[in-house]
Write a structure and sequence with these properties.
Blueprint: H1 2-35, E1 82-92, E2 95-104, E3 110-112, E4 117-122, E5 127-129, E6 134-136, E7 143-145, E8 150-158, H2 165-168, E9 170-179, E10 187-196, E11 207-209, E12 212-213
Parallel strand pairs: 6-11
Antiparallel strand pairs: 1-2, 2-8, 3-7, 4-5, 4-9, 8-11, 8-12, 9-10
Length: 217
Amino acid sequence: MTRTRIILAATAALLTIGLSACDEDGATSSGRFLGGSSPEPQTHSEATGNTPSAEVPPSAETTSITEADPAPESRLCEVGDLAVTVEYVDAAAGTVHHALRFTNSGTSTCEIQGFAGVSYVGGDDGHQIGRPAERQGDKGAAITLRPGGQAWAPLAAPRTENYDPATCRPEEARGLRIYPPQEYDSMFVPLSGTACANPDLPGEQLKVQTLQQGSPS
């Protein structure tokens, strides 16, 4: 009996020890799985949306300012630009009427305005005979002469027979000395005739009007 109790007691002790061991292992395993803090998974941050880029400054607005082409400087027609002729028109009441015509014979445009200077010349030396032409009328507007362009002026020449010879002092003329308006150089146009040499002639032996565009009709 005593021996049986000892055996039972020993068996119970063994069973108790085994259950304890089981319980410890279970707790340990359970603790590792349930109670332990597992490391949080690493979070990878992905940028969403567009990556901000450097701000592009608005393009500078360029205001295009177009300057008008400056008008070409006008220049006066000079002797070298011109050809001149004196053309008979008609005769009436003791006066011969001519057309004094200027043509731009150059290669560039020029302007002409106002009155031509006109006088008779004679002799081998080309001296002036009598007074120069009287200017009649207004100066007129500037005339643009392109190459080949023309301007003209009426030129009246009273006959020398209108005057007493003693007063007129007639002299053979070889032609006309002509100054383009506002020019100091002159041109010569042959025109035979008789002129009054008296500078104090009571009247005019030449009369010129302002230049006009084109040619006489």
